[in-house]
Structure prediction request, 242 residues.
Amino acid sequence: MKPRFSLVIPARNEEALLPRLLDSVDAARRRYAGGPEGIEVIVADNDSTDATARIAAARGCRVARVEKRVIAAVRNGGAAVARGEILAFVDADFQIHPDTFDAIDRALATGRVVGGATGTTVERWSIGIAVTYVFMMSLVRLLRMNTGVVFCRRADFDALAGYDEERLFAEDVKLLWDLRRLGRARGQRLVAWTRAPAIASTRKFDARGEWHWLVAMVRAPAWLLFSPHRVEGFAREYWYDR
Prediction:
């Protein structure tokens, strides 16, 4: 029997945090009204040199090996082997809410939703993280799109040709933007948050400081206007080189 959900987890050298995410996925599968067999879990392993793939296989996940070092390609590589009618994507350093799959099912069952994201909270708080979170939530309300567990129907994902592999970052924003456009033509909306938010890791804040993201956001407009290469350099160093 084909699963209803395929949860795709892009991962590169995530042996430390992947088990924590998979524990939360197991809890959500047990809670799912359609039964745990209705959800398959795919770890898209981006050429890891640690035990990421072995951990995933030992936990019963399907492992898709992806060599291209672009996060959009890793997400697409996991989706390529997925069998579910609903695709969901979450990063390996997140944890998901126990009601994740039921919340997504409820949203899509109305027929008025094209897809979206569950929303997020964070695993720890500080003044810097709280201010950053408020800033990001302001953008969420302005753009009406969010992060967390991103989801859509498989047919719509294929119609949009998946994630844009020309982008080093913000590929999830581009997908949600395209989904919104697709849904608008059918009278469907994009979900920006649910009652089942994912928990985001704060490891970037742990490594780079409580205010690093806001500092980058202040500099970003000048980079875009006067030094576009700085944006690509920042993206490679921030998301790829470490």
